[in-house]
Amino acid sequence: MRLFIALHAWVRALGSREEAGPGGSTPLGAMFAIAIISCAGYCGMLLLPLIVSAPINAFGVSEAAAGKFGAAELLAIACSSTLLAPRVASIRPRYSICAGLVLIITASALAMLAPSPSGYMASRILSGVGEGLVLTAAHAIVAKTDGPDRVFAVVNFAVLVLGAASYPYLSAAVAHRGIAPLAVASAVLALIAAFSLPLLGEYPAVGSESESIFRVAKRWRRPLWGILCFYVAEGALWGYLLRLGIATGKPPQWAGDIISGAFLLSLLGPLIVYWLNLKAGRRIPLVASTALLCITAVVFAVDRTPEVFKIATFELYLVFIVAITYSSGLMAAIDPSGRLVAAVPGVRTFGMGVGPALSGLLMPEFGVRVVGWVAAIGYASAVGLFAATSDAGRTPSPTKALGSRTTESAAHKRRTAASGS
């Protein structure tokens, strides 16, 4: 208890530091908050292989049955995100985040108090609902900043660092102790995210919009379909990348080491986006990075040498982070209310589920190399849809930063009073 009190006091002190900026806000503290909150939301996706393997060790279920736990969590994320996204403009993001974090903590407690396959399944579904709420609200908050691309770069960097730092330890812990390490890790991360909420500042509900989300989505259906195709392709490669490495004739340990090295290399992706920002707009780097991924997928399909697999895997992980950051930034710029970008977690989860399923259906007939062709078709479709999208967006301004405690309604009142005088 004393540790939590001390942590909360430190967070409030960080949020009250004076920096040059509107309303005495601290962009550094707000960046920290949104990064930690997003990490809590991405925890299920990030640790999906461990979530699937934990019940095998804990309950002795088969590998086929264990896959249902991960699928249930992904489906719960997609459903909660899809249901909240159209209404995110009329709900305070802080409320959605709080509700989601409570569900994640409750799910962790359920997993430990009801150590059975049915209890674990219920905890994964509950956790997925909470993660969907957290991710959707977090995306909506980033959309209300004037530099969403850089903020998404920071978020992706934090998620990658969390994965690189925690995966080796959690893998060993899950192998020896089953589901308990996962439950503890999720609960602790959610608690830290809850204590960081004061750093976000005030992001009020936008209220009723002049245009419905469905009209906005219809007008911008090309980038939405592009993001879906992109994640179908990414899901196909992500789900069977280890199998592609083994198909080169090397042992699984070798392929796993290559993937781990590529994961570390991907940390450069958010740094590239943070530096490049909007120097080339959003569409050009998005189309270029997706086109590179398409070429990489073709390489996976036609080449079987270990050296080429190593180079292609490194390129896949590095370029993928650049592409997803700019795609999220584009959706945030299209609809500053945050409703479209709030739908990205749901679209992403759905696509990541369709990709492996589609590849799995074709694999018995065409072999593991069909994964590369499925991904190439998905990436190529995304390239065409992104290229046909206008480079919508706002130029980042120093007058509005993440964490500003000046609400939109207050700013509107000041402008009205000034014009009246």
Overall pLDDT confidence: 78
Helices, by number, come to 18
The CATH topology of the largest domain corresponds to: Growth Hormone, Chain: A
Number of domains as seen in the coordinates: 2
Q: What would you report as the Rg, rounded to the nearest angstrom?
A: 21 Å
CATH superfamily of the largest domain: MFS general substrate transporter like domains
Outline: globular
Low-pLDDT stretches are: 1-26, 393-401, 403-421
CATH architecture of the largest domain: Up-down Bundle
Q: What's the CATH class of the largest domain, please?
A: Mainly Alpha
Proportion of residues in helical segments = over 70%
* SSE ordering: HHHHHHHHHHHHHHHHHH
